Amino acid sequence: MHTLTTIETAHDMYLHLRATLRDVVPDVELRYKAELAAEINVLKRERNAIILGHNYMEPALFHSVADVGGDSLELSRQAATTDKDIIVFCGVRFMAETAKILNPTRTVLLPSAHGGCSLADGITAADVRALRARYPGVPVVTYINTSAEVKAESDIICTSGNAARIVNSLDSDTVIFLPDEYLAGNVAKETGKTLIGWTARCEVHDKFTVEDVANVRAQFPDTVILAHPECRPEVVDVVDFTGSTSAMIQYVERSTAPRYLLLTECSMGDNIAAANPGKEMLRLCSVRCPHMNEITLEETLAALQHLQYVIEVPEDVRLRAHQALSRMLAVT
């Protein structure tokens, strides 16, 4: 939980951001961002809104206006329980849809007209129905990085942090696991179960290779390398730690290693570096999620000013998706 998201003057916000991000964001940018963030915090109070910020958000947003920051599981739990009138989801569309599914009486805003995701865009509800027909009786576990319609066709949802636990909770040695091809491979190794997968991939994590890891180890042999489980299984096999965004944060906080490298979205590394100023983070990342980068302080302010873009989920879809999400929350 962020504790400084009620700062409502540009000067005080600038001082806070400078103290937190001076080694991450240029000073001239901090001054500009501070004005936007202070204005957002004023409007957030007036609108009785809560801002949920995914770990992939730009540092100036994540460390200024996000009342709650975290991974998909943490933000899903918060979305389900908040009593605020408005939820502004600083993430991508499937995350905002999840918030609406779990808390339908609230207005949910996404600060982007699109907010896509290569995984969510990589599978449809019709695809899930076809798989069910092909493998009758096999339970369907669907990654949270999917549309509401796909969730509605699923038995249970998972996140990267609880995927293995969810699969192990099912009384079946064979599971349909959708849609991330690499996460399915990594979970299959961890659980020993047969996973029937799909062919979608995260366009960010797909770019990291074994050669990238080897090059870093050759130049910086004492670096601890962490990877998200959406990375290729062969990459996961050669890094030091694999986990969700929250798990990676916790690992860095607890570890005493001299330096770290994260194989994930670049802003995530920036946010961890800002939160751990005494630890060296290798700044070798060149892979940013184009969809997460649509969410800016400017767009977040516009969302609150104009109450845009409102997320709606048809009630029949919402109810079925809610069942699958509730089963996940009951397991974790």
What features would you describe in this structure?
The protein is of the alpha/beta class and 332 residues long. It has three domains: 10-113 and 292-306, Rossmann fold (3-Layer(aba) Sandwich), CATH 3.40.50; 120-201, Rossmann fold, CATH 3.40.50; 205-281, NadA-like (Rossmann fold, 3-Layer(aba) Sandwich), CATH 3.40.50.10800. Helix content is 45%, strand content 14%. It has 15 helices and twelve strands. It has helices at residues 10-21, 27-47, 59-62, 72-81, 93-102, 125-134, 148-152, 163-168, 181-191, 210-219, 233-236, 245-254, 266-275, 297-306, 315-331; strands at 49-54, 68-70, 86-90, 107-109, 140-143, 156-158, 174-178, 194-196, 223-227, 241-242, 259-263, 280-281. The strands form three sheets. A four-stranded parallel sheet has the order 2-1-3-4, sandwiched between helices. Strands 6-5-7-8 form a four-stranded parallel sheet, with helices on both faces. Helix 1 (10-21) crosses helix 2. The two termini are 20 Å apart.
Short structural summary:
The chain is an alpha/beta fold. The chain is built from 15 helices and 12 strands. The strands form 3 sheets. Strands 2-1-3-4 form a 4-stranded parallel beta sheet, with helices on both faces. A 4-stranded parallel beta sheet has the order 6-5-7-8, with helices on both faces.
